[in-house]
Inverse folding.
């Protein structure tokens, strides 16, 4: 038996180096013991693995990304599972695409669990203020299910760069002093204060913004299980807010009826646009010039959702004015649709790009960025209340449906969103600018026009 000694429970780099050496020698998974820290090893282990000195080989980024997440799982078999899959990938790289394979399915399940645990930590950490002499430190308690603390550290450093903070967990602690990130031993919940002065203000704010008209208790509990409630001060208000939701909703309806509808929505959309200008929900605001918000009548029957702003939109501050916007305008004219009657927006509000020399090249938003920006789309939909939504491109469809889809499978018919609003999905106009050689561009443009025309005519029916 061979022993691999890993420094920590999340020592992916150590596993990777050892796995490279062992895989080059084609050592069987059953002949390896993966030992973390000083935990006892097998009595029959005879040889500690010497890392290095092996010829290099490559595996796909897909496998490395998957393995780096699964290494954070608390499953004691994770390192053996990953090594077994590595040997299979070396023999058959396409095995990762086989979703019916039991081992691939199990490992992807572990990966999905890690994604959820990382998201929960980012969403449900609540800091409390602690005085340290004349300095202030913000301390939070969280109980992760897996070894995600180090993997999440960079997110909190980027989000709270100018704060001095500590996150305490039963698996370890991280501390940021404004310049240096350090680690510490596991902690206990009693190590953080019970409350701080800002919680009173936060609870008042949370109660004020609680919207009973959007309350879906089942969805809320699915996204925010009760096991996280004890760490969040605002959750103490939730039962009473739910109990009084119907009364508050009726009061909101009465107030809305007392105000001219179009004027009220105009003011509200403008306020939302002003609020969005300071959005920091994801890191895309840093390199972008400005946020590009939706434009159009605040009571439009049709909302068109694109993917994200482009270079021209980022410079001008207007939605759909670049090359893709010109294709969009030409298609609207061909379909007999008046753009001034549409509310046009994007699923992601900031321009994401890569620098190539002096050029800014469009980069596809990732799932985290799409999910972070969904909050703004939801607010726009709630205010405009469109009767029909047209989603252009995979990013827009992903944002509205909350799961990935293939455009080719969805074109030509409506999909009902959770609130019942019909959503027609078509290609993004920028896709028509990137058609490969040999594709009939005019035919694809006509098909795009047909998609828009069918969607609008469905509203008439």
């Amino acid at each position: 038996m061979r022993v691999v000694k890993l420094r920590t429970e999340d020592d992916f780099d150590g596993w990777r180096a050892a796995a490279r050496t062992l895989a080059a020698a084609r050592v069987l998974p059953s002949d390896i013991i993966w030992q973390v820290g000083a935990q006892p090893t097998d009595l029959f282990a005879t040889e500690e693995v010497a890392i290095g000195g092996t010829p290099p080989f490559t595996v796909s980024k897909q496998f490395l990304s998957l393995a780096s997440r699964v290494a954070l799982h608390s499953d004691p078999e994770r390192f053996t599972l990953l090594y077994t899959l590595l040997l299979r990938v070396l023999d058959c790289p396409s095995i990762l695409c086989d979703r019916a394979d039991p081992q691939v399915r199990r490992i992807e399940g572990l990966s999905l669990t890690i994604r959820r645990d990382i998201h929960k930590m980012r969403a449900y950490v609540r800091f409390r203020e602690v005085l340290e002499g004349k300095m202030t430190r913000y301390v939070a308690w969280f109980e992760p299910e897996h070894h995600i603390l180090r993997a999440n550290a960079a997110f909190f450093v980027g989000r709270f760069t100018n704060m001095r903070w500590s996150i305490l967990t039963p698996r370890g602690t991280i501390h940021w002093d404004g310049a240096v990130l350090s680690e510490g031993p596991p902690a206990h919940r009693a190590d953080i204060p019970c409350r701080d002065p800002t919680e009173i203000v936060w609870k008042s704010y949370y109660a004020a913004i609680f919207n009973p008209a959007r309350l879906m208790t089942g969805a809320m509990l699915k996204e925010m299980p009760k096991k996280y409630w004890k760490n969040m001060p605002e959750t103490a208000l939730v039962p009473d807010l739910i109990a009084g939701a119907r009364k508050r909703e009726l009061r909101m309806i009465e107030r809305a009826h007392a105000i001219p509808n179009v004027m009220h929505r105009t003011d509200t959309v403008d306020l939302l646009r002003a609020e969005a200008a300071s959005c920091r929900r994801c890191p895309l605001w840093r390199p972008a010039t400005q946020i590009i918000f939706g434009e159009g009548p605040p009571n439009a029957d049709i909302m068109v959702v694109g993917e994200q702003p482009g270079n021209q939109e980022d410079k001008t501050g207007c939605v759909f004015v670049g090359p893709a916007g010109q294709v969009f305008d030409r298609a609207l004219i061909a379909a007999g649709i008046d753009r001034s009657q549409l509310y046009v927006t994007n699923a992601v509000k900031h321009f994401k790009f890569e620098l190539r020399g002096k050029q800014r090249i469009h980069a596809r938003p990732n799932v985290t960025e799409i999910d972070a920006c969904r909050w703004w789309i939801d607010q726009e939909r709630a205010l405009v209340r469109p009767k029909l939504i047209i989603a252009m491109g995979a990013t827009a469809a992903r944002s509205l449906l909350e799961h990935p889809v293939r455009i080719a499978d969805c074109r030509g018919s409506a999909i009902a969103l959770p609130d019942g609003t019909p959503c027609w999905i078509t290609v993004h106009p920028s896709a028509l600018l990137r058609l490969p050689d040999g594709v009939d561009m005019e035919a694809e443009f006509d098909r795009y026009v047909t998609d828009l025309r069918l969607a609008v005519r469905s509203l008439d029916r």
In short: The longest helix spans residues 102-124. The two ends are 72 Å apart (CA to CA).
